[in-house]
Amino acid sequence: MEPIALDRALDSFSDLWSPRIVTAVNDYDVRIARVEGEHVWHVHTDTDEFFLVIEGELHIALREADGERTVVLPRGSVFTVPRGTEHKPYAPVPSAILVFEPTGTLSVGDRHDEVPDHVDATTGHALAGGVQ
Ligand code: NI
């Protein structure tokens, strides 16, 4: 195990909405992703989902009991989407995020709208070898 520089890890891929697993903590993955444009409405029935904005800005639309709202996360912000809450991330500019969630969590959740071609439905990919 060696330290991983997130900026170098982000430089090692260019796919959007296609998270890379940088490390694990107990049974949770730490994943990073490049993002721009819209993700897809989806819900994680059994787990909260933690977001940290590393670069750019992330908006997350939420469908809550009393209606829909959007939270705006500038660079350096954190937010946790509670389990069972439908959400749709959106990045107005090229951005990078860190996500912390249980290993095996699918990026498009347990239920989702039709997944567009630009969104990768994945439980996360390994970083390319040698990135530190
Ligand atoms: Ni999610």
Q: Whole-Å distance between the termini? A: 10 Å
List the bound ligands: nickel (II) ion
Helix-strand pattern: HEEEEEEEEEE
Largest sheet: 8 strands, mixed
Map the helices and strands.
Layout: H1 6-11, E1 20-25, E2 28-38, E3 42-43, E4 49-55, E5 57-64, E6 67-74, E7 78-81, E8 86-102, E9 111-112, E10 125-126
Parallel strand pairs: 1-10
Antiparallel strand pairs: 1-2, 2-8, 3-9, 4-7, 4-8, 5-6, 5-8
The structure holds nickel (II) ion.
Structural descriptors:
mainly beta; 1 helix; globular; binds nickel (II) ion
Describe the structure.
The protein has one helix and ten strands, in the order αββββββββββ. It has 132 residues and is mainly β. Strands 1, 2, 4, 5, 6, 7, 8 and 10 form an eight-stranded mixed β-sheet that branches. Strands 3-9 form a two-stranded antiparallel ribbon. The radius of gyration is 14 Å and the shape is globular. The mean pLDDT is 95. It binds nickel (II) ion. Nickel (II) ion (NI) binds next to loops.
